[in-house]
Amino acid sequence: MFQNQTFTSRYFDGVSAVPEEGTVLIHGQTIDFSSRDTAHKLGISQFTEFTLTHKGCKLVLLPDEVRESPVLEIFCSKEEAKKLESLWIQTKKTKSKTHAFFYSIREMNPLVLGILSILIVATIGFFYFKGLELVTHFIPISMDKSLGESVQLKMDAQFEACNTKATDRFFSEALKRIVPKGSPHQFQVSVIGSTIPNAFALSNGKIYFFSGLLNDAKSQEEVLGVLAHEVAHVEKRHHMRNLVKAGGTSLAISLVVGPGLGNMEFLETFTEIGSTILVLKFSRDFETEADITSIEYLKSQNISTSGLLTFFQRMQELEKEMTKSEKNPKDANAKDDQVVTKSITDFLSTHPATDERMKTLESLIQSGKKGSIKKIVSDKTWKEVQSVCLDFKNSDSK
């Protein structure tokens, strides 16, 4: 590759800050450096580092525990520096299989190497997050209950429940039918006075229904569908799985980036995540799993499964109407419409009713037995359920 070629060079011996100016003669795998006062015969394999520079290249000798490692700088063209680097890599690859593997990677095209690196990182990330799913199996259910209870205290202090005998009876009967046998969770439903058509569950089995959802429901089946969905979130431990994923992601970032572990900021971050993740939206996978599971619950009790679908369809239509009203306000009630729009949007942010999800629900309902329209309570009791918290709603709209 190099036939007794000579290049201008300088040599730092690791002791003096002043380099020796001289020339190098490259022949075979040997580099002969000579200056006016000294001469050094060095094998290319002796150098532990090779770096391309704008003037040529820089080679670093074996590190020394006592002094800085000597450095040889060679001034040459970019093409000649790359040829010398290739020669250096070939000598390194002959040392061992490990060296051969490592330096073969270094020889790769930067673009190919970048793509390969992304694939490796993606693969490691995939198995890392899949492993986080397994972690949940080792966490006792009591942890779900404890986390849920801590959030429930804040919820009960912030919102006033307006349960009635009718709502207690309806949800009590509904839970008896929907909750799977042998469930380790104790479910309880609390109705909150609010026009927001929303519902969410805590990891301890406490489920909150906003009265707006009950007031506007077109049938018992709609509420049963939403209830089954929330029960599925708890049964599938989505809160804990979400928390483990969030904590695992935070830990991974901390390990890669660095800060946060030394001063316990990571633990503080993890605690903050734990206090909020229980009432935040779930991932699309969790929502789909809750949809599938809720349909299974309803079908097992021969309860109509169409309620959940019609409920989300109604929410989508309302959102579209209110969005138009928000863009083109025509009357004095525009402000109230915007409030309702935000309420519906808030619901859809925690229960994303995407077109894809709607199609999934439709296919689930059409397959297997569809269930029959089954009333949990009498029409009279249902009317009482639908009128719950109306005083709050009326006062809220004034």
TrEMBL record:
Its cofactor is Zn(2+). Binds 1 zinc ion per subunit. This is M48 family metallopeptidase. It comes from the Bacteria. One of its GO terms (cellular component) is membrane. InterPro entries: Mito/Outer_Membr_Metalloprot, Peptidase_M48. Residues 184-363 form the Peptidase M48 domain. Keywords: Coiled coil, Hydrolase, Membrane, Metal-binding, Metalloprotease, Protease, Transmembrane, Transmembrane helix, Zinc. Belongs to the peptidase M48 family. GO terms for molecular function: metal ion binding; metalloendopeptidase activity. Pfam families: Peptidase_M48. Residues 308-335 form a coiled coil.
